[in-house]
Design goal:
Blueprint: H1 20-38, H2 55-61, H3 72-86, E1 96-103, H4 110-117, E2 124-130, H5 157-171, E3 176-183, E4 187-188, H6 192-200, E5 205-208, E6 242-244, H7 245-253, H8 256-264, H9 276-288, E7 293-295, E8 299-300, H10 320-327, E9 331-335, E10 343-347, E11 349-350, E12 353-354, E13 360-361, H11 369-375
Parallel strand pairs: 1-2, 1-3, 5-7, 8-13
Antiparallel strand pairs: 3-6, 4-13, 9-10, 11-12
């Protein structure tokens, strides 16, 4: 009987269904997360695909960026800044406010400022930077207070240079403890004593600074500012600051961050319309001492018309009601320039207590002087 040989052929299994679509989706998601981590965000719209909280929800979830090695210039700069901030405030038996006027020529509201200063001699100093023509003064408080001035061009670093020039001159007086930058269209909203106590009796600087992801904010950032300044550090704000002495010294000591804005923040550079005076001081102090600034300015300006320049007030606009409306504002509002037009609202806190935000206001036409002079006597009741 022959032996039957059984030849076993290869065993066939039914093909498995591979979840290809799941693998593809997971790969895409991982790529998106890696991209969000590696590359700085340019737009907020894509972030809302994943979360109603936007990019912040993703960046909160992701691990922190590894700390980079500082450059030699950064190390030196940070040492100087740290030393100045750790210094105890200069003790003065007669602390003064330094009023620094940045103007093109004569001051149209000098008579009003004379009325504001009168009777408070020894508690303030005045400095005038006139960029176009020598001012003609009508008040004794302004006589011989002109400093060496240079030409100032709107939007360029020369505006920041003028601010630093004013600070340098004002710092020569050791009694000056707070430094207020004002324009020729600025007017006071309160009597002197109120302004003096508001600024002297606090330990912060009133620097306007907020994050704007839109074209008029982060859209002006230049990668040439890297590595010292990153897009996440970039801030915007009004130039009209009021700073304590420590911060004034830091501005004068800075060369590293100033040079970044001098070289890479200018109109037309790389197709961007970067305005140095709107970004240098807000960005600088947001980086080096964010807890030491208020993030709003004590000078009111109305941008509600959404134009390149703020609303200006003519003689017929200047009424008791207008001044009362401005002095009743106790929250600071910023609106981003992106498509979302996000309103950022924060209370104006003075030593932890909510108070009116503004001590000064602009822009007023010279024709408004007479009405302002008439209303000055009612300032204390506004």
């Amino acid at each position: 009987m022959g032996v039957m040989q059984i030849v076993l052929g290869p065993r066939h299994r039914p093909p498995l269904k591979k979840p290809v679509w799941i693998i593809v989706l997971l790969s895409l998601f991982c790529m998106l997360l890696i991209s969000a981590y590696v590359y700085p965000r340019k737009s907020y719209s894509a972030c809302y695909v994943f979360s109603s909280r936007g990019c912040k929800a993703l960046t909160d979830w992701l691990p922190p960026m590894p700390a980079r090695e500082y450059t030699d210039q950064e190390i030196a700069s940070r040492v100087v800044i740290k030393e100045i901030l750790s210094m105890p405030p200069t003790q003065s038996r007669n602390p003064k406010l330094a009023f620094m006027f940045l103007t093109r020529g004569s001051l149209p509201f000098e008579k009003l400022w004379h009325k504001f200063f009168h009777g408070h001699e020894g508690r303030f100093s005045v400095y005038v930077h006139a960029s176009k023509e020598k001012p003609v003064h009508v008040s004794r408080y302004f006589l011989n207070q002109d400093i060496h001035s240079e030409k100032v061009v709107w939007g360029k670093i020369s505006m920041v240079d003028a601010e630093r020039r004013l600070l340098a001159n004002a710092l020569n007086d050791p009694d000056n403890q707070h430094f207020v930058l004002l324009s020729d269209s600025c007017v006071p909203l309160y009597k002197f004593d109120y302004v003096y106590n508001y600024l002297i009796d606090t330990n912060i600087s009133y620097i306007d600074s907020f994050e704007d992801p839109g074209p008029h904010g982060n859209g002006r950032f230049s990668e040439h500012m890297l590595p010292e300044i990153e897009m996440r550090d970039f801030r915007k704000g009004a130039q009209w600051f009021s700073v304590k002495r420590q911060h004034a010294l830091i501005v004068m000591a800075d060369s590293l961050y100033y040079s970044k804005f001098r070289d890479y923040c200018k109109p037309g550079l790389d197709g961007r319309n970067c305005i140095a005076d709107e970004h240098y001081i807000p960005t600088f102090f947001s980086m080096i001492d964010p807890g030491g600034i208020a993030n709003w300015s004590v000078t009111h300006v109305d941008w509600s018309e959404a134009k390149w320049h703020p609303k200006s007030y003519r003689a017929q606009d200047v009424t008791y009601e207008l001044l009362k409306d401005i002095t009743s504002i106790n929250t600071s509002v910023h609106v981003t320039s992106d498509e979302r037009k996000e309103r950022q609202v924060r209370p104006c806190l003075w030593n932890g207590v909510q108070r009116p935000c503004y001590l000064f206001a602009r822009k007023f036409y010279p024709e408004a002087l007479d009405n302002l002079m008439l209303l000055f006597s009612s300032y204390q009741t506004i």
